[in-house]
Amino acid sequence: MSNKNNPPASRRSFLAGTVGTAIVGTTATAVATTDDDQSEATAKSTATWKPTAHDLTMDDGHRLRVWERTPDDPDEAVIFVHGMTYGAVPMFDPPVAEDFGWLRYATEQGQAAYAPDMRGYGETELPEEYTEPPEANTPPLSFEREARDILELTRWIRDEQGFDRIHYVGLSGGTWRGRAVYELGDPDYTTVTLAGGSFETLEVGADPDGPAYLPHTREEFYSAWTGEVPADADVDRWIGGDEFTVAEVFSAVWQAIVESNQARAEPGTIAAPLVRQARTYHPKRIDDPTFVIRATSDETISREGALNLYDAAGADDDQKRYTEIAGGTHFIFLERKRREFFDAVRQFQTQY
Fold it and tell me: What CATH class is the domain 20-349?
């Protein structure tokens, strides 16, 4: 069995207002301040393993990075919204293998897949507060601001990319963001998937008095992930199946995390954003067909919390479904059972 506290060495190397957009080519990220920094930032954005990158300017001038994978002649789109701590690419499209990741799966299904890095995450422009120590500022991020960004991204996909049918997939913290989206607007999604989310059993939202963010290390990520794998299970088998070792998957995911604006000066450390929640954002506002899905070994989200979310969602009873997939943790979308997880979501989407 692999050591959960010390990952072995890998065997492989491996969008409120008018929104402006530009496909990233040689554009440097906002935190770059010198020619060398700009070259490094550009290299990160244009790495061959990364999806197509768009920069969308929000109503307040903030730059939002949106990743895209699109097959030939797609007739619908899907928005993938990541959770807390980690951005879009490591969660949905890490450089593990060419057929690995939820974005690549969606394109196999004929969908245009879009995944924003929310503010404070990935390659989206960092809040100014992130250039200072965490304790120097109060949290600049809020679910309301994030929801307005997602509503603008939705408008951009619908009006400028030409998709009438748009599915929403919220992962973990993305389920809270989805609730805020419906509280503040009427996105009219074809379906809504709430994956790894809960209601009334888990407190979310940062302390309004600070800090602005938290440092988060490689070791903390590894422990949080593998700590949910049952004690009697082989970690390599549980996460990598017959294709990969846990080190291969973990190393690729961590690479995608640190090759972004979230990386801190301290080696192996990133900034974990903290988001304020000003109100509850009740799931009853979600009135489009809704799918709630959870992995059975998810120790972050309880079955009670997930069922509460299912019960509280505002869609008609005949347009709601609850499903659990056995053999996965809170990170099942990166594990051996990921395709079964993806298939369940896609099966629900195809009914509408």
Answer: alpha beta
